[in-house]
Amino acid sequence: MPYDGRLIAGATVLMAVVEAGSIARAAAALGLSPSGASRALQRLEARIGVRLVDRTTRALSLTDEGRRFYDQAGPLIEGIEEAALDVAGAVSAVRGRLRVNIDAFFSRAVLAARLPDFLARHPDLGVELVMRDRTGDLIADGFDLAIRFGDPPAGRLVARKLTETRVLTVAAPSYLAVHGVPRHPADLAHHACIDFYDAASGRPYPWEFRRGNEVLPVTPPARLMVSDSGTMAGVCVAGAGIAQFLELGTEDLIASGQVVPVLTDWSDELFPLYALMPSRHQRAARVRAFVDFVIEAIAARRA
Questions:
Q1: DSSP-assigned letter for residue 287
Q2: Cα 123 to chain center, whole Å?
Q3: Tally of CA atoms within 13 A in the half-sphere of 63 that contains its CB
Q4: One digit per residue, pLDDT tens: the chain, 303 residues?
Q5: Cα 200–204–207 angle (5° rounding)?
Q6: CB–CB of 252/269 below 8 Å?
């Protein structure tokens, strides 16, 4: 296939549409009219001979062929951009728009107070933090990366483990004063417990206790299940029952005595935190800067 500048131009528009999530937003980012961006996509599809994007009145999504094209052409388009930045002496410039799929609890508890400093460091960067209860399709949803607890999903995402945090079993002093302190995980059968909803499975997160090499799964008799970590913290502090928290982000509740860890000799379970990235984004300066910021925020929380 001979060189065709319109092919590269159309590929650039396709990349922008996937990144932005809509033709209108992509057109604005590229300095085009929406109709001009739409025509560029149509010319690209005509040049290749396959449909790359499914268009409906409510959303855009990549076809299978479109996803293959995006995955293969993306690094090449990004390479052209990086070459231009290198020549301009700004290969490590942190700028543009960064869209992050992020765990709401982690964002609120660990990052929120430090975000002003991050934005001040990178005045040419715009950040969108979108709280989701699952990873979803980062490319189709226009995300640069995701920050999620739990093992990474199977697929082609690049996963970088950022940290691990203990799973703690806690209760309010008011609850323990009335109902007593469990001494063994089996004792939870006689306590009120608070479950947390796992959006990926549609069921509560399983309770598992670890002590060295011992692993003891438990199904607690929960009367209450919530899907928001803030609500779970609030009802636990209010004395509704025993809950399992991640240690990272809940240190203040423990240090202030609002909740008390129990079954501490069975608290060897660790839960990982990952940065998940579409492969073509892993070298982008804005992504590297945000991942470094997250690691810095975690370290400061533990200092």
A1: H
A2: 23
A3: 10
A4: 455 667 778 888 888 887 777 788 778 777 788 888 888 888 888 888 888 888 765 667 788 888 888 878 777 776 676 666 555 544 467 888 889 999 888 999 899 999 999 999 999 899 999 987 677 667 667 788 899 998 887 666 788 999 999 999 999 999 999 999 999 999 999 999 999 988 777 788 889 999 999 999 999 888 899 988 889 999 999 999 999 999 998 888 999 999 999 999 999 989 999 999 876 555 678 888 999 999 999 999 887
A5: 115
A6: no
Cα–Cα distance measured from residue 267 to residue 302, given in angstroms and rounded to the nearest whole number: 18
pLDDT of residue 82: 62
- 């290198």: which residue's tokens? 86
> For residue 217, what are the contacts with CB-CB under 8 A and spacing of at least 6?
206, 207, 208, 209
The label of the residue with tokens 């992050």 reads 100
Helix (H) or strand (E) holding 5: helix 5-20
225 and 212 in contact (C-beta within 8 Å)?
Answer: no
Torsion sign, CA atoms 60, 64, 65, 71: positive
Alpha-carbon distance of 168 to 262, in angstroms, equals: 8
- State both tokens at 260: 């008390």
